[in-house]
Design brief:
Elements (H helix, E strand, L loop, with lengths): L1 E4 L10 H11 L6 E4 L6 H7 L4 E7 L5 H14 L5 E4 L9 H15 L8 E6 L7 H16 L4 E6 L6 H6 L5 E5 L6 H14 L4 E6 L6 H13 L2
Parallel strand pairs: 1-2, 1-3, 3-4, 5-6, 5-7, 7-8
Helix pairs in contact: 1-8, 2-3, 4-5
């Protein structure tokens, strides 16, 4: 299988979270390669290291937007010179098991900071886009799924590049909140922007739970998706 992610090229970006997921999957007997659209190794290079005739691609992306529907598909088609079977699985952001993983991540942060979940709001902080609604749609769908669990008082959304911003969403809240970054990797947005915006709020009752891509249980989601496709 191929774990495909956006990645990050800045000097201090190691994309370690994706490699940890790959290591966990390899420990389950899967042949795994990691490839990045922006990073090393590239998707093309990763595909060439795999020897199987059938390759399952799991897109570690928060939404089914441009990079998964268009750019990744284009790269795979250009790289698959041998004409092997290359099948795209559902992106992480739309994985049906993701709401449970994110809920557990938020619960862990609430307990760590001694916040009562029933009195606490979860804020899903995503990228957003003025040009493509995919990020908003997947984030709102995730929020509705979390709300159905009924564990937290409420679930709100906020975005980096569209409204509402984290500042606006937090300002409208009464009571504590846990912010989960709806990012699949530790790029600029996940590793710097998200925690920086939470810190800038200056509120001790608003805590950062981390990004969903590094949450415990993500490797399990990928393994389950691969097993389900292998069974077909």
């Amino acid at each position: 299988m191929l774990l495909a992610a956006h990645g990050e090229r800045r000097p201090d970006a190691g994309n370690e979270g994706v490699f940890r997921i790959a290591e966990a999957l390899a420990g389950r007997g899967l042949e795994v390669a990691v490839g990045f659209i922006s990073g090393v190794p590239s998707v093309r290079e990763a595909l060439q290291t795999l020897v199987a005739d059938r390759i399952l691609v799991y897109p570690l992306f928060a939404a089914n937007g441009y990079f998964t529907r268009d750019r990744l598909v284009q790269i795979l088609e250009e790289a698959n010179k041998a004409g092997r079977s290359v099948e795209m699985l559902t992106p992480l952001g739309l994985d049906p098991g993701l709401p449970h993983v994110v809920m557990q991540q938020a619960l862990g942060a609430a307990h760590e900071h001694e916040l009562t979940p029933a009195a606490c709001t979860v804020i899903l902080l995503a990228h957003g886009s003025q040009r493509n609604p995919a990020s908003r749609q997947s984030t709102e769908e995730l929020a509705r799924a979390l709300e159905r669990h009924g564990v937290f008082r409420k679930v709100e959304v906020a975005f980096l590049e569209e409204q509402p911003s984290l500042d606006d969403t937090a300002a409208a809240l009464a009571g504590p909140a846990v912010v989960v970054g709806v990012f699949s990797g530790e790029g600029l947005h996940g590793a710097r922007d998200a925690p920086g915006l939470v810190a800038r709020l200056g509120r001790r009752d608003v805590v950062f739970a981390g990004i969903m891509g590094t949450a415990p249980g993500i490797a399990d989601l990928v393994a389950q998706a691969v097993a389900a496709r292998q069974a077909t």
